[in-house]
Amino acid sequence: MSRLSTFITHLECSHTGEVYEAGAVHGLSQTGKPLLVRYNLPEIAKAVSKDELRQRSGGFWRYKEFLPVTNEENIIRLGEVVTPLVPITRSVQKYGVTDGAVMIKDDSRLPTGSFKARGLALAVSMAKELGLRHLAMPTNGNAGAAMAAYASRVGIKTTVFCPSDTPKINIAEMALQGANVYLINGLINDCGKIVGEGKDTVGWFDVSTLKEPYRIEGKKTIGLEIAEQMNWDLPDVIFYPTGGGTGLIGMWKAFDELEAIGWIGSKRPRMVAVQAAGCAPIVKSFDDGANHATLWKNAQTIAAGIRVPAAIGDFLILKAVRDSGGFAIAVSDEAICDARDELAINDGFLMCPEGAATYAAYVHALKSGLVEPQNRVLLFNSATGLKYDMPLKVQTLSLGERIPYEDMRSSPP
Ligand SMILES: *Cc1c(COP(=O)(O)O)cnc(C)c1O
After folding, report:
1. Based on the structure, what is the number of domains in the chain?
2. Ligand 1 pocket: which of 83, 108, 114, 120 to mutate (most atoms <8 Å of CB)?
3. Does ligand 1 come within 6 angstroms of the Cβ of 244?
4. Is the pTM of this model over 0.85?
5. Taking each helix axis from N to C terminus, what angle separates 116-129 and 215-229, rounded to the nearest 10 degrees?
6. pLDDT by residue (tens digit) across 319-343?
7. How much distance in Å is there from the Cα of 44 to the middle of ligand 1?
8. Is residue 145 in some structural domain?
9. Is 131 part of any domain?
10. Which of 189, 219, 231, 392 is deepest in the core (most CB within 10 A)?
11. What is the dihedral of CA 357, 358, 359, 363, to 10 degrees?
12. In angstroms, what is the span from residue 187 Cα to ligand 1's centroid?
């Protein structure tokens, strides 16, 4: 069995700094807060170089020195790729935006069609390493699908609880990939309660967002990847569709670690937490100047992935946003749909609603002067748009009837 040179030193409570040992099964800290993995960063810098990284294949697993898996054979692979940065041009021309300044980080191209693959590849690989046999989680769809896929690949049992109005494709794919799926007439936090309360009876391990320490290590690879792709010169602003916030917290952790080893300087992007107007607890607490969010009542949005009424890592999201000089912004479902349609028709890019929310927020921020047209901006597309309901804008023809070719002529320029 080949061992990875692992650089993990310990885990640490994100609130109190209390230390926990590596190599053991961990959930939350004693005080009920997320645990963060800590590494011997100077040793990582000695063990791998930027040049060596460039030669490697294997998507986010390329950053193995920055990741917690210690035994190569526990790494679960489904064909991970480095996801592209796709420039958006035609949609933003009318706002006087500098050519090439706006790019989409397109994580729809990961296994299971969403960036949840990053976190769950790590969480499930670590579950395998630590000998866990049954994983459970509340999900709005994509996390459950990624967990099921990676776990089924190594014969680990999975059980998921999702709101009954979760996008149909998500529900189907979770079950098809081996999860026991339960639909609940409530929201993701209600589902989370079921997982927590069943733990002692069933014996499953709770893989909820930030309730175990390794999903965030997977999400951290977004930040590592962006830095490497942009030649270690980070963008000015990053718009992130925020539910539980792991991607945003993860990117911030990545930037901390990269700065600590001297691979990037102290210049950081402004981090923008984007939420839906129908579920915006982080935006509200940001506006209120609070350090924690309060439960959002009657959460509603078509952007299922960010319908998260309460986030256990709220204080970490708010701290990263504030430390970065960023902001939090909410957009309506109508603005989300308009943004999706605009990018699809002008730039040939079909965003998921959560991703489209970042574009809607960007345009709003541009118009209100929160960002400048020359800022280098990264929008995050967290999943494929194909998993969601889409408007059907079509016409029907009947064979045997005359085809109205005259209506199909291109209009004069
Ligand atoms: C889960 C999810 C999000 C939100 O991610 P968090 O890490 O919970 O903030 C955004 N978009 C999609 C498509 C998702 O599945």
Report:
1. 1
2. 114
3. yes
4. yes
5. 130
6. 999 999 999 999 999 999 999 999 9
7. 29
8. no
9. no
10. 219
11. 100
12. 15
